[in-house]
Amino acid sequence: MEATFKREATVRKQVFPLFYFLIFFAFGALFPLLSVYLQEEAQLPGAAIGWIMSLVSIVAMAAQPLWGAAADYTRKPVELLTVALGVAALFGLLYSLAGSYRVFVALTVLLSAVQSAIVPLSDSLALRHVHEQGGNYGAIRLWGSIGFAAAVLVVGWLSDHVAFAVIFYAFSLALLAALVLAARLPRYQAAPGRLTWLDVRGLLSVRPFCLLLVASFLLFGPIYANNSYFGLLIHELGGTLTGIGFAFWLAAGSEAPFMKTADRLIRRFGMTRLLVLAALVSAARWWSYVADPPLWFVYITAIVQGCSVGLAIPTALQYVRRLAPDGVQATAVSLYAATSSGLGAWFCTLAGGYLLERWQIGAVYVFFGVCTIAGALVLIWLGKVEKTTESAGEKG
């Protein structure tokens, strides 16, 4: 018994944090600079860049629910995660060889189909581990922010001083290292029975869960789309590739302390209030970028991301777990991911590409601000629905 307890403590304190560090290091190495690579190296126009970047989200929107359903059906999420890591690393290397628009499109589709499984499956495993063994999900997830921050700083400097293609090599190497570590992730006893369509219908009939999906679309869509356009904003304001990496480092690094305290803040203020706060902070940040602010101001406001994203990510994921019935946890997390980092990010990235080409980068952030305010209103509605449901339950 004591040996088992020590093994679970090791998983929580060492394996999960390092695993999250590696997968988000991979994402931080590639995605923040990919739009700049397509513009500077591939010489693609703004609309083409917006379309390619939005493909990541389009494919994720379709693939993530399938990965989640497969995990709930097979009850083998670790094995599926291992496959996704290996194939994504392969496509990342192939991406560095692309030289035409059509090849970029094809490889983006293939890479996104497997890469989109990594975070939802990892999150469902981490949430279950915390639920079964205790601990703090935010304290695990913050290592993802640290990994992302380290990648944008280190790989940003390397791409500026060595070669731009290093973003693809760093992405693939980090995923291969995570693949090796995945063998040590916990495997829990499968729940009885298989996932059925009735289980999915039951999940989608939960009204607060559906409202949370709508709010996630509006709140996280601009947040994830910003990863595609933030580098272009800094570039237009005169920043270098190293400067872009530094800004992403500030933004991602500031998330860690907020993620660590998210559980305590949830217990004190509630999930809905925290998400509304995160939405309002994000909206203020987007609106501040509208009128071509000075570069130093952009660097300073990047730190604001800690309060918005650092609170929103762990709070929303734990909200999803609380609302979802047992047996469909991986499906629920995947639907949430497909709605936020899939559909929401696709819509905001694609719309941003057309706004960028027709007007300027400021128009992109006007759109982001409007979406985020709408998301805050939906969250307020969600809070009222939950209060009404709780009151009805108490009377019953």
UniProtKB/TrEMBL annotation:
InterPro entries: MFS_assoc_dom, MFS_dom, MFS_trans_sf. Pfam families: MFS_1_like. Keywords: Cell membrane, Membrane, Transmembrane, Transmembrane helix, Transport. Its main location: membrane. It is a multi-pass membrane protein. GO terms for cellular component: plasma membrane. This is MFS transporter.
